[in-house]
Write a structure and sequence with these properties.
With about 100 residues, the chain is mainly alpha-helical. The chain is built from 3 helices and 2 strands, in the order αβαβα. It has one domain. Strands 1-2 form a two-stranded parallel ribbon.
Amino acid sequence: MRLLSAVFIMLSLTACQVEESRINDKLTEDINSALQKKDYRLIARATRGLDIPGVDKALQLPLKESCGVKYLAEYGDTVTEEFKIAEQYAFKFNQAILPYCRQK
């Protein structure tokens, strides 16, 4: 029984690592594509207020006005597993695009 539990845990961890690697590959691809197109829009969360992960609250409105924002379908008000992934993705994407946005 312990062996089965250990195998299950190992398979779960491996699946998580594969998924994280796939997400990181997609993130890198999307960042490179945005930079190539000079699309410096930041990813914002679709809520009643403005929420741009990885950006200081005081800078969010000015950056939205100068660079623009885009929204992910999975990144709304309902917290799901997809939401958590989208939140990490948006944070990392915004951190990579932010220096280019500020130069605009």
